[in-house]
Design brief:
114 residues, mainly beta, six-stranded mixed sheet, four-stranded antiparallel sheet, 0% helix
Length: 114
C-alpha cells in the first residue's frame, strides 16, 4: 500500500500563499489518480482537489481559482499550491489516492491567521 509523507505546512497570514508537498512511495505513482484532503477538529475529512494520472484536475468550489494541484511523476511527489488563503482554509492537509485507499499519512498543519 501507499506510504504518504506530507510536508510544507505552517502559519501564514490571511491573503498569503503556501505550497504543501506529499512524497508517495509503495504504489505506481505515475499510474495513480491522487488527491488532497483536509480536516479540521469540527469537520469530517473533505476532498479538496484531485489530479488524474494524465494531469486532469478538479477542485472543491471553496478553493477554485485559489488552489492548484500538481504532480511530479519523476519525484513521485504531489503538490498543492494555495493562494489567497483565509481562516477557513485552516486544517490538517493530507494526500491520498483518489478515491482514498490504505493508511493515511500524518498530514501537515496549515494555519491561517486573520
Amino acid at each position: 500500500q501507499a506510504q504518504l509523507v506530507e510536508s510544507g505546512g505552517g502559519l501564514v497570514q490571511a491573503g498569503g500563499s503556501l505550497t504543501v508537498s506529499c512524497k508517495v512511495s509503495g504504489v505506481s505513482f505515475w499510474l495513480s489518480a491522487m488527491a488532497w484532503y483536509r480536516q479540521t477538529p469540527r469537520n469530517e475529512r473533505e476532498l479538496v482537489a484531485t489530479i488524474t494520472r494524465f494531469g486532469g484536475t478538479t477542485y472543491v468550489d471553496s478553493v477554485k481559482g485559489r488552489f492548484t494541484i500538481s504532480r511530479d511523476n519523476a519525484r513521485t511527489t504531489l503538490y498543492l499550491k494555495m493562494n489567497s488563503l483565509n481562516a477557513e482554509d485552516t486544517a490538517v492537509y493530507y494526500c491520498n489516492l483518489s478515491p482514498p485507499a490504505g493508511s493515511w499519512g500524518q498530514g501537515t498543519q496549515v494555519t491561517v491567521s486573520s
